[in-house]
Amino acid sequence: MFFRTYILFIFCIFVQFYPQVEATEVNISTSIEPELSAAFQARTAWLEDRKVIKGNSSSPQFINQLILSDSPYLLSHSLQPVDWIEWEPEFESGFQSNGQLIFISIGYSTCHWCHVMAEESFADREIAEHLNSSYINIKVDREQWPLVDERFKSALELLKGEAGWPLNVILTPEGQVIWIDSYLSKAKFSKVIRGLANRWHNKPEAIKSLAARIDKKLKAELGIGNEQSMGKTLSKSEWRALLPKMHQNIHNSLIAEQGSSGPRFFRAYWALGLLDEYLRSGDKKLLMTVESHLDIILLSPVYDMVEGGFHRYAVDGDWQVPHFEKMLYTQANMIRVLAKAYGLTGKGHYSIAMEQTSDWVETWLKNDFGYSSAVSALSEGEEGKYYLRAADTGSQEVGEQLVSIDNLTRDWRDSKTFQQLNESRANRIKPLIDEKVIVSWNSLYAVSLLEAYEVTQEKKFLDRANLLLDSLWLNARKDNQLNRILFHGRASIPAQMEDYAWFATALLKLSFYQAWADEEFENVTKEKALKKNIEKSIETATQRAVWLLDRLGNKVEGGKGDKLTNLTLDGELPSTYAAAFGAITNGRQMIGKREYKVWLNRLTRFFNPKPQSIISQYSFVTLMADKVKKVNVNQAVFAKGHGKVTLEQKQGKLSLLFDMEPGWHVNANPASSEKYIATQVSMADLGDVEVKGESFKVNYPEATHKKLGFNDESLALYEGIFEIELRDIVDNSSPQKVNIRIQACSDSLCLLPEDIFFFQ
Fold first, then answer.
1. Domain residue limits, the chain
2. Domain Spermatogenesis-associated protein 20-like TRX: where (predicted)?
3. Are 37 and 214 in contact, with CB atoms under 8 Å apart?
4. Is the Cα dihedral 751, 702, 678, 343 positive or negative?
């Protein structure tokens, strides 16, 4: 009823007022400020290369404030007659528009309809005259300001049933929505902006009344309220009871989508969560469903078997018509899924696709400061033209399968067809690349590289992640603050929660492969070092992660509950809420600062899972499942970050390689006394049925004997680097878990015993 009333009201505006509106004569100023002119001169070569400057004009008629931006998308609008400004953080607290309406247009560089509307409407002088005379005009790159985009995308979905880009919204001077839509033709858009401007001029109270009704609807439906309405925190036992049904709902949804009409998305976080649940439950249908989903994608044109990399999604239900953009985050998401699938199955085609995708990112997206965000779908003005064969060849490259489902394990890169297709692209005009480096996307990509390294031990993955994270740390941090964007070496846009979260997560993963930090740093607190500007103290991945987590925690601590809960929905990326929760959870496991528990409790408190919304909140659900029961594939951290262990398979045996931080140890097997908990290794199937001892043998290393400060007797210990071997494993054909029971101590205290589970 609300939506029908809203549409009827807007319709009445147009019917009653639009015919009476006469064209307003407004002269667009062609005088250009010196600052804008200088910025244009500095970026002329780039603008020419991107075809923003058409012809040989070196003196454009219009230059707006977007010429100063660090976004290729915004720069493409910088020579339009609209007096655009870009989004500023200050707009969160008000627009200071002097009573004018606010027009916001949100898009991104690889958005086809964004560029269509730009050509049709925003480059048009008549449209510009109406916008400039009646509105404050704000252009937003959704990739720079994801939370701004999410806010208005949610409003558009609620009011119209679906959302897309360009996302256009008109607000009152106070920031309340009065109209929102996506692409409109020039004629329809002109009618909207003229009709609403006229209505605002003649009857502002009617517009304010409409805005108040819409605002009330949005707050009610989007859960914007006070913290007391957020619901109660679920206990661990309540989560344990809910989780199986949640996983089953996702599994059923993934199967249902396989028969849908499209569009089709990769659902990377569904796949990752279901693979993890397979490890916990042993339910093989979860693994089989994910494998089927992956294999269909790899055999489809949505995966570029010629050069590597995944297109953004499929337009149809059969994965045969790609939407040809290639996004960095898509590659990161899919590398993570492929790494997990390869780690569980050992199937070579997952490893091949993972390596080919990373190599494509390295070839196409790598720049001097990180990895560019995206490749356009367009080449020579046509979507997908770069990926299609010429019509006179009699066939299309896209859709042509290099391998079949029966022979997917063959390395298609060795085939003659592959070589021919690769060579045929060499002379084609490549799509444009959005060169901006986004910290969160790059950090997510680093996570994917480290997960690829974990299951393959291919050093190039580790090296790429190391170089990338170093570059982000050195270039995105300025004046002791983290920025979100790097564009041609310039850092801009304050970092968002997701930037801190994914950057910290990546660094904590990297720390697994670094030597333990110097004791000297542990004796000097992080804040004390920063106050003295001892930047060189922040050298290890763990130390850098602490810096990031402290700032992430401040945002969690200072964020209002209603605003935090609005960050729980997944999109093509996992929710900001889940990213923050995951980063702080990792920090607590590996660093153990007390504040981390407080921040986690706050995030848990404000998450109230509902069955109808669980599909769009699954990334957080998977983290809670991991908290209830964590199963590792190849490596684990224990003892609050003071110990590391890696599982390796070597010619008929399993090897557990331990690395204890100096000053920490575990009890040997056998222990010095029955009162101490010996390190114990056992095996079980995925249903937790224990594998009998005669089915395998455990070789424990020789103990180190020493006296510690809290005990006069000599103790049998394992410390430093040591190895436990499992030999003569009788049946290795079915999946099994390796269980490690362990208790870690320092010279002054002992932690509680803990269990580590490995899948093999």
1. 2-222, 258-452+479-488, 635-759
2. 64-218
3. no
4. positive
